[in-house]
Amino acid sequence: MIKNKIHYILVATILLGINGCGTDTAEPDKKKRKVSGFHTDRSMFIATIDEVSPTKEERNALIDEFIMKSNLQCQHYLNNPLNTSSTPKKQGLYMDIFDGVSQAFGVKNITDGAKKLYIKKSEDGSNKAKIAYENALSPEIKRGVEIAREKYVQKMILRRTRMIESYTIAMMERDMDNYDKLCSYETGLIEIHKALKKAQRQPKIKPFSPKIDPTTIKNKVEAVTREAQANKASNAKIDVKVLNAKESGKESQSQTVSQTEELNRTAF
Question: What pLDDT digit, counting tens, does each position of 92-148 carry?
Fold first, then answer.
């Protein structure tokens, strides 16, 4: 009996030791973190690369297909309202644009009002003026994205001429990631700000067919600001009328009650 008991204890100890060792091993994370922002979908690409011995031709074919399809996908991404979420960085960039308009055209009274309107929210948390600014500047924002991506793609095209040993697949992948990151509203806002800064340095020189016209930016900011201010004043007048109507209604009701009480007293 004692031998059996000792044997049982030894077996149990060994099993516990094995289980304890197993808990020290980290399980692989099956859930991949979803990175926000634009990413070119390459699931349907035709071009492929031999992972073991890639060639320059294979690499270049993939680059060409990537650039073409990434540009189309980026356009769809920017047209999707769900991708226009607000961030502190984005708000700061709009403030920079308002400042840029003020410094380039001397309309500080307009841009100071634009800043207040862009930040201020109504009682229900909405901000129609903010949406109006973003919608008005949407074409210039998209042009800004195109400008930034065109500059970067020129670097990628130039690197296509290099041998596979000097421009490796890993380097190409980094370039593709950087190209994807440029497809964002923040990129477009940065390019608008650059155009406004350039207008400050060269106020008398107007470039031929500019993709981002500073004067157009100024006109749009001014138009949205004036309309938002007019709507705000109109709503204030409506609120006053409603308040006066309520007060008038209360006075009328009070007079009716008083008259009723007077009649009751007279009757008795």
Answer: 999 999 999 999 999 999 999 999 999 988 777 788 999 999 999 999 999 999 999
Q: Please give the Cα distance from 215 to 231 (Å, whole number).
A: 24
- Answer yes or no: are the C-beta atoms of 90 and 96 closer than 8 Å: no
Looking at residue 231, its amino acid is N
Between CA 70 and CA 208 the distance in angstroms is 28
Contacts of 256 (CB under 8 A, 6+ apart): none
Instruction: Write the CB contacts of 71 (distance below 8 Å, at least 6 apart in sequence).
Output: 149
Residue 201's alpha-carbon distances to 98, 148, 197, 206, 215, in angstroms, are 17, 21, 7, 11, 14
- How much is the pTM? 0.73
Distance, in Å, from the CA atom of 164 to the CA atom of 226, rounded to the nearest integer, reads: 57
Alpha-carbon distances of 223 from 145, 170, 176, 243, rounded to whole Å: 24, 48, 39, 30
Using CA atoms of 188, 200, 135, 84 in order, give the dihedral in degrees to the nearest 10. Answer: 30
CB 188 within 8 A of CB 149: no
| Type of residue at 133 | Y
Tens-digit pLDDT profile for residues 27-74: 443 344 456 799 999 999 999 999 999 999 999 999 999 999 999 999
b/e 39-76 (16+ beta carbons within 10 angstroms → b)? bbeeeeeeeebeeeebeeebbbbbbeebbebbbebbee
Environment class of 224 (CB within 10 Å of its CB; exposed 0-12, middle 13-18, buried 19+)? buried
